[in-house]
Amino acid sequence: LANTKDTVRFVHIFQDQQREFSTALLSDPEKYQGKSAVVILERRNSIGRVVYKTMADIWSGSEQNKFVLLDYLDQLRRDPNVLSSEIVLQDLNDELAPVFFLRWIYTAIDYWSDCWDSLLHNNWREMMPLLSLIFSALFILFGTVIVQAF
């Protein structure tokens, strides 16, 4: 977590729907049957090599569970060797991943909203060269269309 590009993601996995994944990570699946377990894992490469550590207690959401989880995460930030177990996982499908077209639309909407916000909230003197370029291009395009029409 020392690198600013590192991200922490919290994912909820149903044991019934991803049985291979949960049995690979949980040492005693019967212990967690119908209950929640917390597994901290880190992907080491794109092939599927993962190092992980399963919290010993069943997750109930109590303050004690939260303190233990925060302690594990703090230890992981200081020493990546805290994750003691290692496994190679098979390729898994992410059922919640958006399709390419939706990701493209979300990215375009974010880009346009950032442009709109910068247009409204920045100093107009900073935006004048961009606006001048846009209106010059529009004038040239529409001017040539009108000239060719007559």
Structural write-up:
- The chain is mainly alpha-helical and 150 residues long.
- It has four helices and three strands.
- Strands 1-2-3 form a three-stranded antiparallel β-sheet, with no helix packed on it.
- The radius of gyration is 26 Å and the shape is elongated.
- The model has no long low-confidence stretch (mean pLDDT 77).
Low-confidence stretches: none
Helix content: 40-55%
Shape: elongated
Largest sheet: 3 strands, antiparallel
Percentage beta strand: 5-15%
Tell me the Rg in angstroms.
Answer: 26 Å
What would you call the structural class? mainly alpha
Task: Annotate the secondary structure layout.
Elements: H1 19-25, E1 39-43, E2 49-54, H2 63-78, E3 85-88, H3 100-121, H4 124-149
Antiparallel strand pairs: 1-2, 2-3
